[in-house]
Specification:
It is a single chain. With about 525 residues, this protein is α+β, with helices and mostly antiparallel strands. It folds into three domains: about 230 residues; about 80 residues, no CATH class; about 130 residues, no CATH class. The protein has 14 helices and 19 strands. The chain has a five-stranded antiparallel sheet, with no helix packed on it. The protein has a three-stranded antiparallel sheet with strand order 2-16-15, with no helix packed on it. The longest helix is centred in the C-terminal third of the chain and has 51 residues. It is flat.
Length: about 525
């Protein structure tokens, strides 16, 4: 607060009045910035809803086979040997399954270093364990080689990826992270054994170690390879994998995996069948309620999203209601500020290109398949309902009961063209909109987080940077202008004071005193 001068003029009020006019351009910039921030925040809300609709709904909820599956597999008899799950294309054939042998994976197992070793232990510490030897820098630098299925674990210079300073946990993660090796490493802290297993089960899987004496010194750290005796008495380093052997309806079959599909039913072999209870009986039942509930939920989610988008692109815009300045808020009640701000935010997306285009694409995807959809009881409402879907539940139930595969083909796509279903096409349209929103607003097209950080180099991010720059420059100019006004008024006060003093002196010299 500055003190008024001797003249009695209210200098602060005068400067404030002069600055009010000069601040008008700054207020306009701040309002434009606020509108842009509101718009960007709303785009992030749209981004969240669209990611949720695309990923959580279209792909993960309605796009999986179980969502529209009308078949249910029931296991009786030996329920411990087999688990069964019927797919939409289940043929309804009853099956009797006897598990003679489970599929196993080829594996290599070391002799083990005993207890007291954890995955945090380094290779050098492992070598020194059980002795009084102190781990030296040379021990830490010593390299340990490993070769499996033709893959050598070395860097570009041919240097081993493992040395004395490498922990067992790092050894495991490095081996498991190499997709070409096609093996899985694990460590048993109880026995101290390192186990290398093929990712592929059955006879096709393999764990072929390097044949050179220096190619697998890593395994020597774990006390070498534990040899396995085959049925013919031969000792080998790698325990071979075997195929699963089952009898289905009296027919003997071999499978490389314990999980396979027969007659549209996925069988998971859990245990060998027992002598007392040798057979697992599997029957397929029809249960239309699951598919009906999924389709009704899908239509509801579609209508909710479409309704939300339509409401935003048609929302009324109040051009006379701009964002309030701080000075304006001071003079208003809280309730009035809230109501004003609601109108200022209204219509930000009226006729928005991205949202309008998405609405058109979504509706076009539906109308292009309206014939097939109508045949199963799904139609669009009246023209004024803006593409809202309607369900004739009776007709839909009949369609599910008569031809469940037709429902799957329409929504999820036929087996010959699985990406040609309505759900995939809608997901593609939403994904394209997410790309546009991300480019414009800097949102994360894979995240539903409403507090996620924006990418600064987006179109709107660059505009905000420009606004901030302009605002900062204008604030500097306004501060200079205010200081200049105060200097001018101070100079005027000084001149007036000097004039008053000279006037008093002149009157005094003329013998005139003020009464």
């Amino acid at each position: 607060m500055r003190i008024n001068g001797f003249s009695g003029m209210d200098i602060d009020s005068m400067v404030k009045s002069l600055m009010t006019a000069k601040k008008a351009p700054l207020d306009k910039l701040n309002q434009q910035k606020q509108l842009l921030q509101w718009t960007r925040d709303s785009y992030r809300e749209f981004n969240s809803k669209l990611v949720d609709f695309r990923t959580s709904k279209l792909i993960d909820k309605y796009g999986v086979s179980s969502a529209l599956n009308v078949h249910k597999a029931v296991v009786t008899g030996n329920t411990d040997a087999v688990k069964a799950e019927a797919f939409a294309n289940a043929t309804g054939i009853d099956m009797e399954v006897k598990v003679n042998q489970l599929a196993t994976k080829a594996s290599v197992e070391t002799n083990g270093v005993g207890q007291g070793v954890t995955t945090k232990t380094t290779l050098a510490e492992l070598v020194a364990s059980g002795s009084s030897t102190t781990v030296t820098e040379a021990d830490k630098a010593k390299e340990y080689n490993f070769t499996v299925n033709g893959v050598k674990f070395t860097d570009k210079e041919g240097k081993s990826l493992f040395n004395g300073a490498t922990s067992i946990a790092t050894v495991i993660s490095t081996i498991n992270g190499n997709s070409k090796a096609n093996v899985i490493a694990s460590f048993d802290e109880i026995t101290g054994k390192l186990i290398i297993s093929s990712k592929t089960s059955g006879q096709e899987g393999k764990v072929a170690l390097g044949t050179g004496s220096e190619e697998n010194t890593l395994l020597d750290v774990f006390k070498g390879i534990k040899q396995v005796e085959l049925n013919d008495g031969t000792l080998v380093n790698t325990k071979p994998g075997v195929n699963a052997v089952v009898e289905i309806n009296g027919t003997l079959m071999e499978k490389s995996s314990n999980i396979f599909t027969v007659n549209g039913v996925q069988l998971t072999l859990l245990n060998k069948s027992t002598v007392d209870n040798p057979v697992s009986k599997i029957k397929t039942q029809v249960d239309s309620q699951n598919a009906l509930d999924s389709i009704k939920s899908l239509v509801e989610d579609y209508n909710n999203l479409l309704g939300f988008l339509n409401s935003k692109v048609s929302e009324e815009k109040y051009r006379d209601f701009l964002p309030l300045t701080d000075e304006q808020k001071v003079e208003m009640k809280e309730d009035d500020i809230t109501k004003w701000t609601e109108k200022a935010k209204s219509g930000l997306f009226k006729n928005d290109d991205i949202l309008s285009s998405l609405i058109t694409e979504m509706r076009s995807t539906i109308t292009s398949q309206l014939g097939p959809l109508s045949s199963i009881g799904i139609t669009t409402g009246k023209y004024y309902e803006n593409g809202k879907l309607k369900i004739d539940e009776k007709k839909l139930k009949e369609a599910i009961a008569d031809n469940p595969q037709k429902i799957v083909d329409i929504l999820q796509g036929p087996l010959s063209a699985p990406n040609e279903g309505i759900l995939d096409k809608l997901a593609d349209k939403v994904n394209a909109a997410l790309d546009k929103i991300s480019l414009k607003a800097g949102t994360d097209k894979f995240s539903t987080d409403l507090n996620s950080i924006y990418k600064e180099e987006s179109v709107m991010g660059k505009r905000l940077k420009n606004y901030n720059k302009q605002i900062k420059e204008m604030q500097t100019r306004l501060t200079s202008a205010e200081e200049r006004y105060y200097k001018q008024f101070t100079a005027m006060e000084t001149a007036m004071s000097k004039y008053q003093s000279q006037s008093s002196s002149l009157l005094s010299s003329l013998g005139m005193t003020s009464q």
